[in-house]
Design brief:
This protein has 318 residues and is mainly beta. The chain is 6% helix and 47% strand. It has helices at 184-195, 207-214; strands at residues 13-24, 34-37, 40-45, 48-49, 52-57, 60-66, 69-70, 72-77, 91-94, 97-99, 107-117, 121-136, 155-161, 164-166, 169-172, 174-178, 224-228, 233-236, 242-246, 250-252, 256-259, 267-271, 277-282, 291-296, 299-301, 306-307, 310-316. Strands 1, 2, 3, 8, 11, 12, 13 and 16 form an eight-stranded antiparallel β-sheet that branches. The chain has a four-stranded antiparallel β-sheet with strand order 17-19-23-22, with no helix packed on it. The mean pLDDT is 91.
């Protein structure tokens, strides 16, 4: 078939940036809570590396070796969320009092860029950009006296990134979803995770979770698989741990163990490497011949699915 250029509806372009969201990374490498970034004006992506080093042998070029590629960017904005101050090297000494030159927190970022063509203009679609493992470098802030032509200060940050793992691929710090190609139902589900709903807080899923969401196979509804001690169990050892297993990897939870009288049992929670098995280890032995309640609440899996609260009980040995 003969090539044809610039046909109607095929004159594409990309423009703009909007709907910025900041996600602070926690100690587990997850990004559990999104915060709207108002005043975001530009994100300039600037990958580096991927440089070719020629190797010669037998008086000829033998092979080209390419260096690793890294993702970097410049963020510009008129303002930034209060939560971003820890990413910009600030720390609070008291309410309204902060200092600089402190440790910089790692963060993630989400934003949209508009896709246009000659027929629909900028209503054609958009790209959803997800950035992981970002660290902001110190930024310049230029303050000037107000004159007859005042301008708002534009803040700017250079960011570098550390790539996160992707099953079956090289690690990456950047993921892009094209609304003109992606399944609209699955894209809506992803945006519900990224931007939150009336029932669930927003968070940034890791690439493997995004891949699973867009995969052809159906995602199982989140469910409680097992709990040990079992519901209504008796003669449970006073030094027993509570082990709760879910069918999907869990992003957040608010599991609480109490006595039947409502006294909260203190203890430590740990997850296995799959993110599906939660172990609760009480700080001290449980009281004998006592009924305990395990409230499995606040559970949301990595696909944004919430589990209705469940209450289980068991009785310790005398």
């Amino acid at each position: 078939m003969k090539l044809v250029w610039d046909q109607v509806g095929e004159r594409f372009y990309e423009s703009g940036v909007k709907n910025g969201v900041l996600y602070l990374q926690n100690q587990l490498g997850a990004y559990p809570l999104g915060i709207a970034w108002n005043g975001l004006t530009a994100v300039t992506e600037s990958p580096s590396g991927a440089e070719i080093s020629p190797i010669y042998a037998d008086d000829i070029k033998y092979v080209n070796i390419m260096s690793a590629e890294e993702f970097g960017a410049t963020i510009e904005a008129y303002t930034y969320p209060d939560a971003f101050t820890v990413c910009d090297g600030s720390a609070d000494l008291a309410v309204g009092v902060s200092i600089g030159q402190q440790k910089r927190s790692i963060f993630g970022l989400a934003y949209k860029t508009a896709l246009g063509n000659d027929v629909d203009g900028l209503d054609y679609g958009y790209k959803l950009h997800l950035i992981y493992g970002a660290v902001a470098s110190p930024s310049e802030k230029g303050y000037q006296t107000i004159n007859d032509s005042p301008e708002a200060i534009t803040f700017s940050w250079e960011i570098s990134t550390t790539a996160v793992s992707v099953t079956g691929k090289k690690p990456t710090a950047s993921l892009i979803i094209d609304s003109t190609k992606a399944d609209p139902t699955k894209l809506a589900a992803l945006e519900a995770i990224l931007f939150g709903t009336t029932e669930a807080d927003p968070y940034l899923p890791l690439p493997d979770a995004v891949t699973a969401l867009f995969a052809e196979q159906a995602i199982s509804a989140v469910a409680l698989s097992t709990i040990v001690p079992a519901d209504a169990a008796t003669n449970v050892a006073k030094d027993a741990n509570i082990v709760i297993t879910f069918n999907n990897k869990i992003m957040r939870e608010a599991v609480v163990v109490t006595s039947a009288a409502g006294v909260i049992v203190p203890g430590a929670k740990t997850w296995d490497t799959t993110g599906k098995i939660l172990t609760f280890n009480p700080t001290s032995d449980l009281t004998g011949a006592t009924v305990y309640l395990v409230t499995v609440g606040g559970v949301t899996d990595i696909y944004g699915q919430a589990l209705a609260a469940i209450v289980k009980k068991f009785t310790t040995i005398a």
